[in-house]
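Reopening this one. Same input as before:
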Amino acid sequence: MIGATDGTSRIAFYLTPQLSLMAFTSAIEPLRMANQLSGKPLYEWTMVSGDGRPVQASCGIEMAVSHGTDTAKQYDAVFVCAGLNVHLQPEEAGVSWLRRLATDGTTLGAVCTGTYLLAKAEVLDGYRCTIHWEHLAAAREQFVNLVISPELFEIDRDRYTCAGGTAPLDMMLCEIRNSHGAALAQQISEQFMCERIRDQNDRQRVPLSQRIGASQPKLAEAVLLMEANIEEPITLDELSHHVGLSRRQLERLFQRYFSCVPTRYYLELRLSRARQLLLQTSMPIVDIALACGFISAPHFSKCYRENFSLPPRDERRRAAGQLADPGNSASASNKLDENLP
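Same output, byte for byte:
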């Protein structure tokens, strides 16, 4: 629970450039409604940025903040709100601030990709955490010592982390329920027309078995085996043996439900993982190739170009170019080149 001695929990939302507006509002609106329905100032909130300047969300809306990280103010909790290209953001001031807050015993949290900055600040060691499903693979590659789950949100003692979208709504409703009772949380849920309050045991993505139907457990098992063997792909014969189907039966199932053969599905799965690592980390391309089961960087680049219509090097540069300041584009390109094979 986010504690407060006078009954009002003071929360700061640390906003980073390109943050997800939906995730941010999903976190703040339950607090506003808790105050409205209870008739009490249960929560107060403030927006903060690294330099105290306004921050632009990924949708283009600019938001004012109260102060920067160099202002000495105390909060019961601080939540990092992030979104696109969080791994490319120059957030040294924010990372240092988060470390100081952790030393002071402040509750820390994150929404969407904000978990990345908490991990970078090394304040998640020994805690369970989660992040938006698109960034799970990249986060696990970069922060190998962390326990990163695929759950909707994680509340582990004084660390709150959640996925993007509407997941912060469920996390905050859980906090309100724990701090102020189930009745208030339920009233807030009804105000926002939520069918139910999801808990932290809910997974982020719809299970494959639900998407293709419960009548195809063998197909679901085959896909799970593929997902679990990205770095060292298994052969179609091995896959068939493990799920107890012939190659022909397995090919028919993939063709029926995914409109492609198993080998093509497996390749696209590995390429999708590679694209996540390419855009969400600074890993060298050759390391990404090996991590996704390709025998060499040239072979990986060939497959990547055929699937995404441009080579991995250009994909990474294009993504960085959308973020970089025009005056610093050359230096940004040089930094990227240092990580390319």
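So the earlier flakiness isn't reproducible anymore. For the record, The longest helix spans residues 262-280.
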